[in-house]
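Example 162, ligand zinc ion.
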Amino acid sequence: MPLFVNLRHLEAHEVRLQGEWSVEELDIDPRDEVIQANQPLQYDFEVQQVEEGLLLQGSLRMALDCQCVRCLKPFQYHLDLQTWACHVPLEGEERAPVVNDCVDLTPFVREDILLEFPRHPLCDPQCRGLPKMAAGRAKKASGAGRTEVGSPAWAELNKLKL
Ligand SMILES: [Zn+2]
């Protein structure tokens, strides 16, 4: 079911929309085999009438089943837009269609949530830099090891000299 807001209701007061959208309702095309949208989108936002349009403000949350592009491990990615805001124009060329005083907000929410999908999902931010970081650690460790080995050796030499 599309998410409609009635403009007549908005004239009197702000409208709060809260609920869940199934993936079928949102009609999200995963497009990507490493990202699967299997769980509903949770929305909770207020709709306010502003000049030339509507202002949506609130939160969008959704869990995505992803596969890490580095290590191929499956993991859940949590989209959590706590301070989501969106302007829906009601005037001009880009204006949203109004049918029986109602505006369908679905395309705006869909577009914004799709923008937040990870491009290259990673199980952990560190997964991306793993080869580099491991090399750095190894270098540091061997360097530290050399000093540790070196110091007593020099101490021994000094003893011999004395
Ligand atoms: Zn990974």
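Summary: The mean pLDDT is 82.
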